[in-house]
Amino acid sequence: MSDSSPDPKVRADGPLLTRDAGPHRPGPVDGGSWSALHAEGVRPDFLSWFAERTRSTYCRVDRVPLDRLPGWAFDPVTGNLGHESGRFFVIEGLHVQTTYGAVREWHQPIINQPEIGILGMLVKVVDGTPYCLLQAKVEPGNINVMQLSPTVQATRSNYTRVHRGGGTKYLDYFTRPGAGRVLVDVLQSEQGSWFLRKRNRNMVVQVDEDVPAGDYHRWLPLRELLALLRVDGLVNMDTRTVLSCLPSAFYAAAQETEAPSSPAVAAIVRSAAGAPGRHDLVSVLSWFTGAKGRHEMTVRRVPLRGLPDWRHTADGIARDDGRHFSVVGVTVRIDNREVTGWSQPLLYPRHRGVVAFLVKEIDGVAHLLVHARYQAGLLDAMEMGPTVQCIPDNQPGPRPLFLAEVLEAAPERVLYDTVLTEEGGRFYRSENRYLLVDAGDDFPTEVPDEFCWVTVRQLEALLRHGYYLNIEARSLLACLRSLW
Amino acid sequence: MSDSSPDPKVRADGPLLTRDAGPHRPGPVDGGSWSALHAEGVRPDFLSWFAERTRSTYCRVDRVPLDRLPGWAFDPVTGNLGHESGRFFVIEGLHVQTTYGAVREWHQPIINQPEIGILGMLVKVVDGTPYCLLQAKVEPGNINVMQLSPTVQATRSNYTRVHRGGGTKYLDYFTRPGAGRVLVDVLQSEQGSWFLRKRNRNMVVQVDEDVPAGDYHRWLPLRELLALLRVDGLVNMDTRTVLSCLPSAFYAAAQETEAPSSPAVAAIVRSAAGAPGRHDLVSVLSWFTGAKGRHEMTVRRVPLRGLPDWRHTADGIARDDGRHFSVVGVTVRIDNREVTGWSQPLLYPRHRGVVAFLVKEIDGVAHLLVHARYQAGLLDAMEMGPTVQCIPDNQPGPRPLFLAEVLEAAPERVLYDTVLTEEGGRFYRSENRYLLVDAGDDFPTEVPDEFCWVTVRQLEALLRHGYYLNIEARSLLACLRSLW
């Protein structure tokens, strides 16, 4: 079955490319928020380069029923969906029981991809100005086809050549000791609701020598990259998580040295500079340790076959009530990456999510309200998430805590508001609206047990280690760096 | 079946109590290394108090076949062994496949205890001298019946009263916010070869007020506690892991201010004081992240029933070849804790293990040789272990790397050598010989990929976070604090 009807989620205007699901050559990047970028210091030559890469990329993604997906098969016993090579990933079932929250038990399909991939960014400082080597990369799930990815984005299957494609460019810088100075090297989780214990190696390596950019790679000043974070759907998830792990010291050279644009931003700058917070780091860690022990979550891998509440249709695997997500199959043709044609399942979230931090100035220092959040697929069941992280249309019960404060904030309180997508190599047309909202002086300092006010510098300290901040929180922290 | 034959592993001399498996009242603590303690500043009143507690404690542990263990039953479908309440823990099967090491695939029973317990120690500083509140505690698996445990040692089942015993003394200090100043609060793993993803909350809380010691509790100067770490089988595993997480600053007041006893100890003191090491912390973290990604380990929970290579006998569940461990049942009567009688399975390691750090002075600073070690039950499959961690009699192939260097070291190179036991609430008569060995100047600085030289202060920084250092490494780090 090829998906020939226009998808209602595709937006016909704005910077996300209009896209039919059939064969197409995406047009040049264009849209409202792009023109504003010139004023923010993004040079026209990047814009024309990216438009040209997009133009010269042929991409076709066709929906295919899962049972006719070349190279993939349902296991005759478990019904799990896997690749014939035994590699890449497997869609299997999960049974979750917990003592926390409104829904205490459920079943769901989940992506099991135990191998560790590399998300690596090369950086270089020229005359005091930091630069990053980005890649214009196509992924089959992207709404807008092409996004800005880190220098290297490779699963272990990729770089050990399971699919027999070409070598991954620049990979040596991240696997060969001494190829550069390692600034960041940490395992971080990915979507805990969709992946089972997935983690990737987030790396930043600084080089001094000249490293030429290939056809689809480009050295971009960090400052321009931060500005591009304010464009809908442009900077991909992998770039955001890698950026989030960079220490403040590296950002300093790229950021505004003049007076911040507003008192709220000034308080964030102080927060990133290490001004003391409401709690010291030992107390923040103690709060988090306590939260992990307060409830229990039991997670059990079960066969995908016969998963309660889910069924196979011509369209994929979906819930009876249409909520949450479905698993769909696609066949892909792309002309500018290692492998030019393949098939795979993708997880298709049915609605747009909201991911937001409330920010509050306490004693002159901005604090972010983090949420100790259970997610069934996380390695230790809990990480710190943003204040709000939900798909409003999926919520069966009352609205999640603080969602109203975020969505109904006065415009002058909204510090950041951009639609970004999640990993297009695993998720089909996933979208989240990322927001940073000034909670204001009247917002209470006392918060429920599972929330805590922390400073930007404290989060930076935690980001040296894995499994503290979930992918959604990390994405937003990268966006926060674009505010000054 | 009651185990009426004397166990060959029980030692008839030395400080570990001679113990028949039948009904008994353990005699007073006595043995060679005790008398030396007076010279090291351990006051006779502690010794007499501990001897008196031991005398006044009645304890009887009887071996019982697993299928006649009161309150426990094999699941009719999976054959897993669990408690009728559904709590405490379950003995189930594990199937492990890995690309690393000599044995690439195996099955084993494993203890699944997903709930988080508390290992909590109250501390207090009086006139500049730090004190710890210890407990003389009996566990059924202890060879010597009574050991020194932290103030509180409670599983979640314990303190939520699943077994309907009395309340846990002092628990409020660790669960009530603001009851004291939290110095340490971190989730740490336990034996990765025997537990599936087990973790406990390691806590140290400092109080200013007077907290009276109950009958089986005692305030002990930290300096005396460190000296007691040199007595075979006295300080239990839970005390050791909690001690290991205490920052150097807290130890400083308890430790020798005079000249260290040897150049090797002087180098360790510098290492703990923060002298720069061979690698900076970013490089150590990068080495560890790289090691995690180099191989894969797939762990799958499987039914205990029909586990390949293992069989049920009258004696418990054991391997056909007698290696590794067996699962045995015991019925317990103890007269001085919350519940005075119960039954449970215990994991019974068949041989004594060796746990050792090689220590080497590099540019005047002591470095410990840590090993990035896979263990199937660990949450992220790998943590840093000591240089050597093995049960020599279990090894089917060649001797583990560096075992010879440890066991054949000249006596003047052996900085620490004490037999300590693992958690007596889960393990039956487990013993490890813990060693700190000066590797000497001739030992190479270049080591295999999965090893790294780190300073004491670097390990202290990692211990603020969970899942970096395994329980064996943490135990040894506590012991290291006893050297000066």
Task: Please describe the topology of this protein.
Two copies of one chain form a homodimer.
Chain A: H1 32-39, H2 44-55, E1 59-64, E2 72-74, E3 81-83, E4 90-98, E5 105-112, E6 117-126, E7 129-138, E8 146-149, E9 152-154, H3 156-159, H4 172-175, E10 181-189, E11 195-196, E12 199-206, E13 217-221, H5 222-228, H6 237-244, H7 248-252, H8 263-272, H9 281-294, E14 297-302, E15 310-313, E16 316-319, E17 325-334, E18 341-349, E19 353-362, E20 365-374, E21 382-385, E22 388-390, H10 403-407, E23 414-420, E24 432-438, E25 451-454, H11 456-462, H12 471-480
Parallel strand pairs in A: 5-11, 6-12, 19-24
Antiparallel strand pairs in A: 1-17, 2-3, 3-4, 4-5, 4-14, 6-7, 6-9, 7-8, 7-13, 10-12, 15-16, 16-17, 17-18, 19-20, 19-22, 20-21, 20-25, 23-24
Helix pairs in contact in A: 6-12
Using only C-alpha atoms, the radius of gyration of chain A works out to 22 Å
Query: What is the CATH fold-level name of chain A?
Result: Nucleoside Triphosphate Pyrophosphohydrolase
Looking at CATH, the homologous superfamily of chain A is: EvaA sugar 2,3-dehydratase subunit
**Helical/strand content category of chain A:** alpha+beta
pLDDT below 50 for ≥5 consecutive residues: which ranges of chain A?
1-33
Give the strand content of chain A: 25-35%
Question: Which two chains share the most extensive interface?
Answer: A-B, 30 and 30 residues
Helical fraction of chain A equals 10-25%
Number of helices of chain A: 12
N-C termini distance of chain A: 48 Å
